Structure prediction request, 199 residues.
Amino acid sequence: MFSGALVVIDVQNDFCPGGALAVAGGDAVVPLINALEREFEHVILTQDWHPPHHSSFASTHPGKSAFETIDKPYGLQTLWPDHCVQGSAGAAFHPNLSRTRAELIVRKGFRSEIDSYSAFFENDHVTPTGLGGYLAERGIRDITLVGLATDFCVAFSALDAGRLGLNVTVRLEACRAIDLDGSLDVMLGKMRDADVMLV
Ligand code: VGL
Ligand code: ZN
Prediction:
């Protein structure tokens, strides 16, 4: 048994094959994650949870297409197909993902004007989700990240967790990437530079 927390990032239908923002092989991580959940004292799940017409959706910006970027007050924002709309089937967890031992489900991206890749801070890097406080209050210092997508929500979460002083491991075999214009290599490099343990 590992004494830390397994943090399962966004294993939702829209990020799995057939979903609105499908990650290649996204569903393949489910059995691996279910097995890992049994090995951790604490299990936490995150759920991307956008209102309709969220500012990260290309469809909200006339003339813009998915995977283009726009300038937001907090920096560049990639535009995505509509995905993980609150209450939709696409926003639901993959049906086979084990939720039994989850102590906490963190929803993120629910403010219209700001996206939130990280499980700890929204994309302005200052608005907290509450997860950092939860872990601190419970005395949890070690986290292992798995899920979707390696180069966006997993990597942003890992980098923020490192900044908060947590010991961070990413289990890459239980992650899958979007890999937009080389984003996977870029984010793997950033995680290595930040002393995230990649295994
Ligand atoms: C994600 C893009 C948009 C993710 C979420 O879970 O990696 N990526 N929303
Ligand atoms: Zn999203």
